[in-house]
DNA sequence: AATGGAAGTGAAAACCATTACCAATAAGGA
DNA sequence: TCCTTATTGGTAATGGTTTTCACTTCCATT
């Protein structure tokens, strides 16, 4: 329940990156939110505590975090990218239902175990056949939510 | 092998839409390509045969076709949307490997039968639980292709 | 054939999320 | 503390997509 340094602290030095205040703040914001935040969402949130942090830095940091595998980047079709913390001690593997009417996103983690089993198998087959190293996957179900149909 | 009117001809009148030259041309371009075309790709292709057709119409038409379910729209992370004809007599259900290094997209249709089986099941469960009507799904495997790893 | 309303179109301008640029700053090992 | 270099923030561009608006085409009805 209590502290200790956040679990991502170690990840930076190893790559030759520095752990800075903006990076802390952005990771902290991501870890506290359960939504799918846009770059601007994150900028506004971070900006309250650290008004000096600029939007450019948010974009740069997100790109870095995605490259490091700490954050997932999604496109749900609303014209801006959405970010969420990758699986860690506090987040579970899940996929998404995307409403084409209102853009609502529903996370689901039911049955991901079954999915995962089959996807792992498929991933292995594809890796071999196409000489492609897979490091993550996304599943989107598209349709209409209860309010929109 | 030979003609008859394209299979999509019927789909328009039913919705109160008209079958026009630009729409014909765009569908024709999509049906002849095996790649994942951007709006500009389509514009350039269509423009050769019909120099009068504008980029705006391409965007508008693609939006319409996506709404009608005749075309799928994808975001593979290269900053522009990509389109491909939905499944018909000539196209098969498939999913994608997306290379984070060079952006290469690999279509695969191996094992989609197994996927489909499980996804149909999962889709039903989710539909019911979230009162959400699913009309399509996408699976992306992200990683590095042989040239990039 | 003439008419009128609705659907469709193209050129240009506006939009806006993201990126490039560059001078200034801060992190962290020696 | 000093030095090297990663990092940052403001501003200006970039570029894919959307909006606007006047004009054209389609088609059901006189
Ligand atoms: Mn999610
Ligand atoms: Mn494809
Ligand atoms: Zn909805
Ligand atoms: Zn590649």
Largest sheet of chain A: 3 strands, antiparallel
Pair of chains with the largest interface and how many residues each contributes: A-B, 37 and 37 residues
Q: Total number of β-strand segments of chain A? A: 6
SS field, number of helical segments of chain A = 5
Q: Mind telling me which CATH architecture of the largest domain in chain A this is?
A: Orthogonal Bundle
Instruction: State the end-to-end distance of chain A.
Output: 41 Å
Give the topology.
2 copies of one chain form a homodimer.
Chain A: H1 10-13, H2 21-32, E1 37-38, H3 39-49, H4 55-68, E2 71-75, E3 81-85, E4 95-99, E5 105-108, H5 112-130, E6 133-144
Parallel strand pairs in A: 4-6
Antiparallel strand pairs in A: 1-3, 2-3, 4-5
Bound molecules: manganese (II) ion (2 copies) and zinc ion (2 copies).
One zinc ion binds at residues 99, 101-102, 104, 144-145, 147-148 of chain A.
The first copy, chain A, binds a DNA duplex (30 and 30 nucleotides) through helix 2 and helix 4.
Textual characterization of the structure:
The structure is a homodimer of 149-residue chains. A 3-stranded antiparallel β-sheet of chain A has the order 1-3-2. A 3-stranded mixed β-sheet of chain A has the order 5-4-6, covered by helices on one side. Chain A has 5 helices and 6 strands, in the order ααβααββββαβ. The first copy, chain A, has 2 domains: 1-87, Winged helix-like DNA-binding domain superfamily/Winged helix DNA-binding domain (Arc Repressor Mutant, subunit A, Orthogonal Bundle); 92-149, 2-Layer Sandwich (Dna Ligase, domain 1). The longest helix of chain A is centred in the C-terminal third of the chain and has 19 residues, at 112-130. Chain A is of the alpha+beta class. In chain A, strand 4 (95-99) and strand 5 form a beta hairpin. In chain A, helix 2 (21-32) crosses helix 3 (39-49) and helix 3 crosses helix 4. Strand 6 (133-144) of chain A pairs antiparallel with strand 6 (133-144) of chain B, so a sheet runs across the interface. One manganese (II) ion is lined by residues 36, 84, 94, 96, 107 of chain B. Chain A binds a DNA duplex (30 and 30 nucleotides) through residues 16-23, 38-40, 52-57, 59-60, 79-81.
